[in-house]
Amino acid sequence: MRDQSVWQSPVGKLINEMTLDEKIGQLMLINSPGGHSINSIKDDLRAGRIGAILNEVDPETVRELQRICIEESRLRIPLLIGRDVIHGFRTVFPIPLGQAASWDPELIEQCARVSAIEAKSRGVNWTYAPMLDICRDPRWGRIAETLGEDPYLTSVLGSAMVKGFQGDNLSGADSIAACVKHFAGYGASESGKDYNITNIPENELRNVHLPPFKAAIEAGAATVMTSFSDLNGIPASANEFLLKQVLRNEWNFNGFVVSDWESVRILQTAGLTEGDKESAEAAINAGMDMEMASRTFADHIKTLLDENKISMAAIDKMVENILRVKERMGLLNFNAERLGYFREYDLNGHLEIAKEAARKSLVLLKNNNYLLPLKKTNLTNVAVIGPLADDKYEQLGTWIFDGDENISETALHAITEEGKENFSVKYVRGMHTTRSRSYDFFEEAKAAAYDSDVVLLFLGEESILSGEAHCRSDISLPGNQAELINALKETGKPIVLVLMAGRPLALEYIIDKVDALVYAWHPGTMSGTAIADILFGKYSPSGKLPVTFPRVTGQIPVYYSQKNTGRPATPESFNHIDNLPIRAHQVSVGNTSFHLDTHYTPLFPFGFGLSYTEFHYSDIRLSSDKLTPQGKILASATVTNTGNREAEETVQLYIRDLAGSITRPVKELKGFKKIRLEAGKSSVVEFEITVNDLKFWNKYMKYTYEPGKFHLWIGGDSDANLRAEFELIQI
Ligand code: GLC
After folding, report:
1. Which band of pLDDT confidence, cut at 50, 70 and 90, is reported for residue 335?
2. Each residue's pLDDT tens digit, 511-566
3. Which of 516, 535, 554 is the last residue of a domain?
4. Which of 517, 535, 553 lies at the terminal end of a domain, its last residue?
5. Which of 666, 442, 674, 394 lies closest to 543 in space, CA to CA?
């Protein structure tokens, strides 16, 4: 039974007045126009048959649709206007994976705030973001939309995005409702193929994949979107364990759940049901509230009610969940004037934030002989080579429906600006596309290199090579990019490789051919200035990897918080395939966990990123080596800028539980702090640890702590070796 408080509320009174058709209408999210005529949509609105639309971003159309809802429908309930505002709207920020490399929650909140302001100015009031899937398989194209491989980092940054989108008050003029997705476990898609099955043991699901969603809901996320994926045999869109047990019973989520695109209808394709009616029944009884794009709810709810396969109470609850969010958004004050008001915004201010976000997303992965930053006074000729050096569109990345490439600035443009009065720039495309296998421009590229003091090489992936449904079985550089690198290497000129991509790439076979490597992801509208600022030293790179870089595709999955196994690889036990003696005895090779044909460590570890200075970690201290469940320990280390320029560092805290009722990862990120240090200066960075940092879902499926020994590291990446030890004791 519904509790009395609901009946007295505006929502309850509305539900009381609604016909069944009007209730069903609130459950429908349709694509606009998406095969519907605008007049049929308007007729449906007048009849109360639609509660939300997605992909309508013409302000005049939105204004008219909302006016019809309020002035020409019986109950005057306005629409949710949904859009994928994933990493920007008109101003495009780095892809989420690139934003995550900033490890800067405040900046990420700002980017989401700007996105909300620009989206709302076109009438959008609901975004399908943030995407909080944890992914450790960069073959999966949607890793581009994630905040990386780590639950803690994704929780912190995902919550910041929710706050940025929703503001302090969801009914604010610039606020849009967030939709955390894809609930849940989508990032574990088997073999890195999109929409594939996911088999995730409950401990793993609860310790790795669910925490970011819980954190985002605690941050106030208004809605949740289910994933396409089949989770342990039950697709998420009909998974009662996820949608009722976890989301409602354990987390007390009071927003609403929306399906992904036709993810209800394809329950039949997945083999869960035999038709649309059964799919609607399965989704509704599992806890789905709103159906995106398909119409199984509209077509079958009445029959399912007649057959007692679903209850009217369930329908009322679905409507209540949706109307409660509309109430939070201020939509139930029925103010057509306010709904039709879309304010202008300060584009230049937004572009400055985009520049800062792009700068902070760049990760310096290699810098031999301090080639970078480039000194303009030492340069006469600079060769800029590669298809991604001057592409306003490709640098924006995946999921940029509303990105404006006319305001997009490329690296070539910014480098040319830097060159004025300093050095000449010769641009050669080098390849038709990142995938081409022709050698048409190779000679021209080599000639430009021979004439240059330095080669700035822009390669990687066009935006279409990542994102939804764009997965790769081999994540090395596409096309004959490696051959181009080899050809340029022959010129003997120093090569700075700037890689734009929507995922980590497998770079072991080319990393020794370049002198410096800047990983740019897809940095968005202001890529150009940001990249030039780093290359010419206006800013020291501060990005840190939110995801591990495998050496080769075959290493996947490789991630820092792996389990130790009973036979972990060691430098002593590792044997490379080339060094195996002929007729070696079966057990002569170190019987530990590694591949014969590649080293067992990643090419670049999670949390790694170079700077134009060096940071030295020393003097790790604990306030005590004993922690009680009621107490806390202060852990600190001294960080010293031993280089010759001021720079920013992200100090990271990792903890290992040496033994548990289930095996525990060799390291888990438990905190990070960004500091800025002048050359030669030191700072003591301190973290507080309590038993809450040590809790996990254990063998008995209890979220708890277990007394025992722990290791703790403080350092600049997940390979940190400055270690302390403490014990959690039960008193
Ligand atoms: C897509 C995506 C989802 C997106 C939705 C609406 O298929 O899976 O992330 O928000 O449909 O575009």
Report:
1. confident
2. 999 999 999 999 999 999 999 999 999 999 999 999 999 999 999 999 999 999 99
3. 535
4. 535
5. 674
The CATH number of whichever domain residue 435 belongs to comes to: 3.40.50.1700
Beta strands in 70-159 (DSSP E): 80-83, 126-127
Q: Locate the ligand 1 atom nearest the alpha carbon of residue 179 and give its number.
A: 10
The answer to whether residue 260 is catalytic is yes
369 and 473 within one domain = yes
Residue whose CA lies nearest to ligand 1 atom number 3:
260
Over range 43-51, report the average pLDDT.
Answer: 97
Beta-carbon contacts of residue 143 (< 8 Å; ≥ 6 apart): 97, 135, 137, 187, 466, 502, 503, 504, 547
- Would you say residue 543 lies in a domain? no
- CA Rg value for the chain: 27
Q: Does pLDDT of 101 surpass 70? A: yes
Q: Is residue 117 part of a domain?
A: no
Average pLDDT over residues 154-168: 98
Q: How far is the centre of ligand 1, averaged over its atoms, from the C-alpha of 260 (Å)?
A: 6
Residue 697 in contact with residue 660, Cβ under 8 Å? Answer: no
Point out the ligand 1 atom lying closest to the alpha carbon of residue 86. Answer: 10
Long-range contacts of 481-484 (CB under 8 A, 24+ apart): 481/431, 481/434, 482/509, 482/510, 483/439, 483/442, 484/385, 484/386, 484/430, 484/431, 484/442, 484/445, 484/457, 484/459
What are the backbone angles phi and psi of residue 598, rounded to the nearest 5°? -155, 150
pTM exceeding 0.90: yes
- Phi and psi at 557, nearest 5°, equal -85, 135
| pLDDT attached to residue 339 | 78
Token pair listed for 662? 């289930």
Kindly state whether residues 531 and 647 are assigned to the same domain. no
Q: Domain range holding 393?
A: 353-535
**Number of structural domains in the chain:** 2
Ligand 1 mean position to 228 CA, how many Å?
Answer: 9
The per-residue pLDDT of the chain, averaged, comes to 96
Euclidean distance between CA atoms 290 and 222, whole angstroms: 13
pLDDT band at 6 (very low <50, low <70, confident <90, very high): low
What is the number of alpha carbons within 13 Å of residue 171 lying toward its C-beta?
13
* Distance from residue 719's CA to the centre of ligand 1 (Å): 36
If residue 218 lies in a helix (H) or strand (E), which one and from where to where?
A: helix 211-218
Residue 3 scores a pLDDT above 70: no
Tens of pLDDT, residue by residue over 410-432, are 999 999 999 998 999 999 999 99
